[in-house]
Backbone:
């Protein structure tokens, strides 16, 4: 696959988690789960590959780690390797951790990308991914798929991963709140956005806590977090 030229991508973690951000209900939970994953890694020198790295917004959470970004965007100056993420020009068994954040929906061959992650991981290495089930079309025309937990598990097992964990990051409450915010953001009453974000944040937290206590999975899911081991 040839390199692409994608529109300019900017990230500001402070704004991402601002109540004024129309995408607050997305980023609040995403950043929390990403930070928790990186904090769970051993405090040793590790080699981390970020497939579809974009502007590498989460590298800030990887102190004392070698963080290598792979991206297909020819204009991405943050990328360390410009390549198709299904065919990365590195040797086998070189990475301790491979991550990707909302990448699989943008590749025409998600199984090949997961296989490539497995290939470059060392034995006992980890893959960590954020994958959407619900999201509007974006980065057109490079938006191809959405994924259920069962499809994700099937692809990881096919690649050879074990000890697979798939968890909901955010669910229906976040979807509803974001759709309402999007509607209000186009009108004068967008001053209500912080209030709506607070209300639906509390509702999301309540729904997740209730599901956790009851021990069941939520099916109306916005984003999944995925961990697997080689």
Residues:
């Amino acid at each position: 696959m040839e390199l692409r030229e994608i529109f300019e991508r900017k990230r500001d973690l402070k704004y991402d988690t601002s109540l004024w951000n129309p995408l607050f209900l997305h980023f609040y939970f995403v950043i929390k789960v990403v930070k928790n994953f990186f904090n769970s890694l051993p405090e040793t020198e590790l080699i981390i590959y970020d497939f579809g790295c974009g502007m590498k917004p989460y590298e800030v959470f990887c102190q004392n780690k070698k963080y290598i970004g792979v991206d297909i965007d020819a204009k991405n100056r943050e990328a360390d390797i410009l390549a198709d993420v299904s065919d990365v020009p590195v040797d086998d068994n070189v990475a301790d951790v491979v991550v990707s954040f909302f990448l699989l929906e943008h590749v025409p061959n998600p199984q090949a990308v997961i296989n490539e992650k497995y290939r470059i991981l060392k034995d006992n290495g980890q893959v960590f991914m954020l994958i959407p089930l619900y999201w509007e079309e974006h980065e057109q025309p490079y938006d191809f798929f959405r994924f259920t937990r069962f499809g994700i598990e099937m692809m990881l097992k096919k690649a050879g991963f074990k000890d697979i964990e798939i968890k909901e990051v955010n669910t229906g409450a976040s979807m509803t709140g974001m759709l309402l915010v999007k509607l209000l953001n186009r009108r004068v009453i967008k001053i209500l956005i912080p209030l709506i974000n607070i209300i639906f944040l509390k509702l999301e937290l309540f729904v997740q806590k209730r599901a956790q206590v009851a021990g069941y999975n939520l099916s109306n899911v916005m984003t999944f977090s995925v961990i697997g081991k080689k």
